[in-house]
Amino acid sequence: MKRQMRTYYYAIFGAIGGLIGWQASNLLGLSFGSNLYVSEALVGAVVGACIGLLIGITEGALTRNLIQVLRSGLFSGLLGAAAGAIGLPLSEFLFQILGGGLAGRALAWALFGLLLGLAQGVVGKSQAWKGMLGGLIGGGLGGALLEGSRTLFSDPLIGKLVGLILLGASVGAFISLIVTLLSRAWLEVTSGKLKGTEFILDKFVRAGGPAIAIGSSPLKSEIVLPDPDIAPQHAMLTGDGARFTIKDMSLSGTFINKKRIERTELANRQVIRMGNTEMVYYEKR
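Predicted structure:
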């Protein structure tokens, strides 16, 4: 999936999460008790869990990585529940006590987006601060759209429906967009089952950072390529703060620009082949 298209799918999955959150909160009831803030916290937790879960599974779904779907979806869903439980009562508090209105709602939901962005940064392939920044912007905009929708539609249920869909879409889109715009290094798959998919490598570029494995096993590799001719852990990438070095770990070989290598430093636009899959390495200076 092209990096630009990732933003589209993050927005779609986030919107679906908002829709599910709307339906779930309606089924459970709009009021959970006599205390307004307890009720808001519980509703927020339900909505946040739904949006967080759907945004969390997006990357794994696009790369067909079931392990990442489960891990990221669970972590983002839990953080989303916590963020919603904090964000919705906070927005109500700002509205009731400080007269925050639209700005108060936006500020509270910006916190919600920030926590979801943190979850994506931790389990994804980008520095956490990028996801947090995207979530902060998306949550703030989505919160304003949510409040606007609630006042625009005469039917409060319809206003809530539209608002939560826009909130989820905004958070998902900006988490992906900021990571995409600020990415420094990535791999684009140009042949094979994942043709067109791009893997952002920024999380691993720093000196002394963790190595990243490329292979066919989701249990042994961070970048998973569904190719029977690729070893479970075919090659390793390590960063030195500026560039990546790739080391072959397989019997069948890793090829750079059609030449078999054991270990080499990657340069912009080099073609990497493993099994029947080719990728192009890109970097921005």
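Summary: Helices lie at 3-28, 36-62, 66-97, 101-123, 128-152, 156-181.
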